[in-house]
Amino acid sequence: MKKTIFFILFTCLQISILAQTPSVQRINPSNWWVGMKNPKLQLLVYGKNIAGSEVKINYQGVTLEKVNQVENPNYLFLDLNIASNTQAGQMFIELSKTIKVQKGKKSIVDQMVKITYPFQLKVRDQKPQEINSKDFIYLILPDRFSNGDPNNDKFADMADLASDRKNPFLRHGGDLLGVQNHLDYIKELGATTIWLNPVVENNQPQTNEGGAMRSAYHGYGFTDHYNVDKRLGGNEAYKKLIEAAHAKGLKIIQDAVYNHVGINHWILKDLPMKNWLNQWDTYTNTSYRDEPVVDILHGSAADFKVQQNGWFVAFLPDLNHKNEFVANFLIQHALWTVENFGIDGWRIDTYQYNDLNFMNRCNAALVEEYPKMFITGENSVQSAYSQAYFAKNNLNVPFKSTLPSANDFVLFNAINDALNQGFDWGKGFNRLYSTLAMDALYEDANLNMTFLDNHDMDRFYSVIGEDFNKYKLGVGFLLTTRGVPHLYYGTENLTKNFKNPSDAEVRKDFEGGWADDKVNKFLSSGRTEKENEAFDFVKKLANYRKTSEAITEGKLTQFLPQDGIYVYFRYTNNQSVMVIMSQNKEDKNLDTQRFVERISGFTSAKNIMTDSSVGDLKSLKIPAMSITILELQK
């Protein structure tokens, strides 16, 4: 965010300048707060010809401890200490530098130039709400959800001028006001929390991917950390959305990207130092493999380096987290975001490709200021061991991650396998059982973020062959098993598609989000009968889940799947819920004697989805390809 320089003072105006006049164009963070638990703050100062400047800060409680000079003379990094009793207010950062100027035709003299830049210290007033297994998260890709303000669809001064809904690869105009306009829909569905794909400015040019020019509508190529993209509405629209969401009892998770930035990031146009990025003699891509990191016995150092320091793609330059200035820049931006906007949690993109010691440091900084902060990390891995390695775990390994929550790709894969495989040894519902049986690897598997699909995956309804019974089994399992469930926008309305030929196929516009849409699926009248049945299924179970301490807080006991039926219980001292999943092609009678350890003392039950009573728990008739959810009663 650019600020106006407060004043430049020259003692003589009739002189010719022989050296470039110093100037300050921006300071990041753009402001800060008093009362932070960590008194340290490092300011990135960017301008022209500011190296060698004498820096002064005259503000009670603020000490300038060090002025860091770096390779590029256009940068200074200022180390400040802000005492605990410092008062909020506006302080001034003064840079003084002597330059050579010509006075008249022959005389060259030294001239002192002073630049004073205002910097605001504010009072902390954000208290993030806790996100945990009681929550149900709704994932939204803002550009594809709803267009609340067509006036911000495109800007002439941005690198990508296009906005065209007919082109799946370009921006479509969805924005934060569009999300705000549909908060009631999200709340009606039963969600408690909204996760937005990145909102930070992505002033990226279109890139050629697979032979097609594509916009960075997904948001994963930041170009200015301190500005929300103005095509989404900018900083003020984001604040208004969060305030409106909080007023309706909804929480907000922000998508963080620490591993890389967009090729058009303002810092990359004038790097502070060469090692701001991970540099290679020739372009080196990451291997996308987790094994070189988690293989502590047999892995090679060369493979580890490529996985960690290789670039994600050529147009997303890889940040060097071992550079202390880079690390401070990213950590302080995370803290600034919580205080400035009032978000409640973080989802960390491409977690495993970040320097893991840096990630521990970043997690610690957030938790120090906000002890209950929800932080979940994306690691698209295949094994429970790898997934646990990158999160808080019970493994006996040298490196111990501090990530509280894993995006549960292992369970995601198991769900898809379970629903698409026939029941057999190690297949079908046995995949769910076996995956959950490995939960002891995690410090707290109940914090794992669980899902059926997301913005990078084939749509769930297509993966299961558009089988509605499988749909209810998947959604029912998601909302009753352990973890923090999230649903990708549109899944509640049976949105379908595969990623072929690109991710754009699974990022379709939400019908009804644009004024000229012929169908409005935000309304029951705009949905088909089957879509309403799906929406109502999610809505009923999600809203029941809100009130069920057994599902949101309780223990999980599962029984070996037998005869095509998988049974598990969620329970506390006050409530017990029995879940019965069948993948049989015909109805079955279930003898419940095997479950006596969990149903002893209960004589009846209420079917949560049908509101009907079950009077005899000794034998239950289980419909084919179904999920039955019973609240046990005494």
UniProtKB/TrEMBL annotation:
<keyword id="KW-0378">Hydrolase</keyword>
<keyword id="KW-0326">Glycosidase</keyword>
<dbReference type="InterPro" id="IPR013783">
    <property type="entry name" value="Ig-like_fold"/>
</dbReference>
<dbReference type="GO" id="GO:0005975">
    <property type="term" value="P:carbohydrate metabolic process"/>
</dbReference>
<dbReference type="InterPro" id="IPR014756">
    <property type="entry name" value="Ig_E-set"/>
</dbReference>
<protein>
    <submittedName>
        <fullName>Glycosidase</fullName>
    </submittedName>
</protein>
<dbReference type="InterPro" id="IPR017853">
    <property type="entry name" value="GH"/>
</dbReference>
<dbReference type="Pfam" id="PF10438">
    <property type="entry name" value="Cyc-maltodext_C"/>
</dbReference>
<dbReference type="Pfam" id="PF00128">
    <property type="entry name" value="Alpha-amylase"/>
</dbReference>
<keyword id="KW-0732">Signal</keyword>
<dbReference type="GO" id="GO:0016798">
    <property type="term" value="F:hydrolase activity, acting on glycosyl bonds"/>
</dbReference>
<dbReference type="InterPro" id="IPR015171">
    <property type="entry name" value="Cyc-maltodext_N"/>
</dbReference>
<dbReference type="Pfam" id="PF09087">
    <property type="entry name" value="Cyc-maltodext_N"/>
</dbReference>
<feature type="domain" description="Glycosyl hydrolase family 13 catalytic">
    <location>
        <begin position="139"/>
        <end position="545"/>
    </location>
</feature>
<dbReference type="InterPro" id="IPR019492">
    <property type="entry name" value="Cyclo-malto-dextrinase_C"/>
</dbReference>
<dbReference type="InterPro" id="IPR013780">
    <property type="entry name" value="Glyco_hydro_b"/>
</dbReference>
<feature type="signal peptide">
    <location>
        <begin position="1"/>
        <end position="19"/>
    </location>
</feature>
<dbReference type="InterPro" id="IPR006047">
    <property type="entry name" value="GH13_cat_dom"/>
</dbReference>
